[in-house]
Amino acid sequence: MIIRPARESELPALRSLESAAGAPFHDIGMTAVAEDEPPALGVLAASLRAGRLLVAYEEGGPGDGLAGYLMWEPVDGATHIEQVSVAPAYAHRRIGQALIDRAAADGGGRPLTLTTFRDVPWNAPYYARLGFRPLADTELTPGLRAIRAHEAELGLDRWPRLCMRREAAG
Predict the structure, then answer these.
(1) Cα separation of 161 and 96, whole Å?
(2) What is the pLDDT of residue 59?
(3) DSSP secondary-structure letter at 120?
(4) Reported pTM
(5) What was the pLDDT predicted at 21?
(6) Which DSSP symbol is given to 38?
(7) What per-residue confidence (pLDDT) applies to 60?
(8) CATH number of the domain residue 154 falls in
(9) d(CA 139, CA 162)
(10) pLDDT in the model for residue 129
């Protein structure tokens, strides 16, 4: 597997990958999530320019080999995972884990944070297996509170959500 910074020419493919990765939400009654528009090209391009957009390719895989991507941003001294998505054809190959571990390494030893759906098997339970722990409301930083407020404005709180954190290795 190859994990590297994204290239501008890949941005449209990342949007397609995101749409495909969201499709399983249909199966659990979360149609609004499944049909949510992927990040706009401008958002992806801004992350690319900031050096906060990674892609994963698996050699010899189906199609063009684009297996996943991860977008992050600094939030209150942590590396906040804004989005991590894996193409369905590459599910169950630890690609999400590899992207997260690379973001941790690239993040300069800072802890990782993310927000996610509590009860979706490939969300909070998955991240818990990767060493993330749920944060109590009293542990939320101002930046995480702002992210959660924005998610609520978007209607994501129709399903239980939470913030999670993984401490830096070492």
Answers:
(1) 19
(2) 74
(3) -
(4) 0.90
(5) 87
(6) P
(7) 62
(8) 3.40.630.30
(9) 12
(10) 93
Task: Identify the pLDDT of residue 108.
Answer: 77
User: Which pLDDT value is given to residue 63?
Assistant: 56
Spell out a b/e string for 46-74, using b for 16 or more CB atoms within 10 Å of the CB, else e: ebbeeebbbbbbbeebeeebbbbbbbbee
The residues, ordered by sequence, that sit 6+ positions from 69 with a Cβ below 8 Å of its Cβ are 6, 14, 17, 18, 53, 54, 55, 56, 83, 84, 85, 99
Q: With a cut of 50, which residues of the chain have pLDDT below it?
A: none
**Residue 87 and residue 68 in contact, taking contact as beta carbons nearer than 8 Å:** yes
* Domain span at 111: 2-166
- The secondary structure of the chain in percent helix, strand, coil, rounded to multiples of 5, reads 40, 25, 35
Tell me the C-alpha distance between 88 and 24, whole Å. 9
Count of domains for the chain: 1
Distance between CA 159 and CA 83 in Å, rounded?
A: 18
Q: Under a CB-based contact definition with an 8 Å cutoff, are residues 34 and 26 in contact?
A: yes
Nearest to 142 by CA among 83, 75, 93: 75
- Enumerate the H helices of 8-112 as residue ranges: 11-22, 24-27, 31-34, 41-49, 95-106
Residue pair 77/110 in contact (Cβ under 8 Å)? The answer is yes
CA pair distance 144, 113, nearest whole angstrom: 9
